[in-house]
Amino acid sequence: MKNRKKLYEGKAKILYHGPEPDTLIQYFKDDATAFNNKKRAQIPGKGVLNNFISELIMTRLKEVNIATHFLKRLNMREQLIKKLDIIPIEVVVRNIATGSLVKRLGIKEGKVLPRPIIEFYLKNDKLDDPIISEEHIIVFEWASPSELEEIISLSSRVNDFLTGYFFSLNIRLVDFKLEFGRYWKNDEVRIILADEISPDNCRLWDLKTNKKLDKDRFRQDLGEVDKAYKEVAYRLGVLSESEFKKVIKNDI
Ligand code: ADP
Ligand code: UDP
Fold first, then answer.
1. How many degrees, rounded to 5, is the angle at CA 136 between CA 132 and CA 141?
2. Residues forming a β-bridge with 118
3. Parent domain of 184
4. 27 near 77, Cβ under 8 Å?
5. Residue 201 belongs to some domain of the structure
6. Residue 212: nearest ligand to its CA?
7. How many angstroms separate the CA atoms of 232 and 94, rounded?
8. Tens-level pLDDT at each residue, the chain (252 residues)
9. Fewest Cβ atoms nearer than 10 Å: which of 160, 211, 221, 247?
């Protein structure tokens, strides 16, 4: 690692100051965590795969006019991003019932939802990221009504686009988590998609077999976590097997 000033180290990524005041460098680690950091492991190569997968998805979203923080990939584990004022909300979009929805409400696992559901969680590890309503967001001023409207509209567009994109790769987009931030330019503020989109924060099931190709393999001790992430990367066409082997041998 070069001489970079660390701004923040999270569970899966590190943020460094970027070359310009409004940029950051996002470094993808191999650390995997689940159940709010109670379960931890290293998955060799995960950071590289997520860096490439997130680059590809953010690039495709930009092509359909969804503004993202992604500027460019710098190397195997790092990307240059716009520095945002992160809105402290995790937006979860669900197409199929699983995970906490099934546990909380007793809905049948695997039920295809009649329409996508958008949920909000407060980004607060100490409180275990509690589920919140739109009312909480407005009353406690985590986002303004117009920002919330924009967040919902963008989340829905991301879901529509990615559902079709993954479907073309024989993958079912079951659910996923998004984060957004504010970006100021010439006194105007825009809501922009932040963080990452990867098998760490999406549930992806093989269309034919329903095999899980995401972090649930780690959460549920299903094994072959790295193989599942690689499978997603190959289907997206972002990393060849030989490139990936090179990465693992000469890691940066
Ligand atoms: P966590 O903070 O939950 O442990 P990560 O390890 O993924 O998660 O850390 C990445 C952090 O960077 C997150 O807190 C996320 O909100 C923040 N982040 C993502 N994109 C940006 C951005 N463009 N500008 C500022 N912060 C960002
Ligand atoms: N998710 C995430 N980070 C979180 C919580 C959830 O990326 O802190 C993602 C998770 O990978 C899944 C979706 O959001 O794709 C819905 O997760 P759920 O609420 O079912 O939570 P879990 O079962 O992980 O507790």
1. 130
2. 93
3. 85-206
4. yes
5. yes
6. 2
7. 19
8. 567 899 999 999 999 999 999 999 999 999 999 998 999 999 999 999 999 999 999 999 999 999 999 999 999 999 999 999 999 999 999 999 999 999 999 999 999 999 999 999 999 999 999 999 999 999 999 999 999 999 999 999 999 999 999 999 999 999 999 999 999 988 999 999 999 999 999 999 999 999 999 999 999 999 999 999 999 999 999 988 787 676 656 554
9. 221
Asked whether residue 33 is domain-assigned, the answer is: no
Atom of ligand 2 nearest to the CA of 100: 20
The C-alpha atoms of residue 129 and residue 90 are separated, in whole angstroms, by: 8
For residue 50, give the ligand nearest its CA: 1
CB-defined site of ligand 1, < 6 Å: 10-13, 15, 24, 69, 81-84, 86, 179, 181, 194-195
Best mutation site among 9, 58, 86 for ligand 1, i.e. most ligand atoms within 8 A of its Cβ? Answer: 86
In ligand 1, the atom with minimum distance to the C-alpha of 192 is: 23
* Residue 182 belongs to domain with CATH number: 3.30.470.20
Say how many domains are in the chain.
Answer: 1
What are the structure tokens assigned to 110, written together? 């695997």
Please give the model's pTM, rounded to 2 decimal places: 0.96
Q: What value does the CA radius of gyration of the chain take, rounded to a whole number of Å?
A: 18
Q: What span, in angstroms and rounded, lies between the C-alpha atoms of 5 and 159?
A: 35
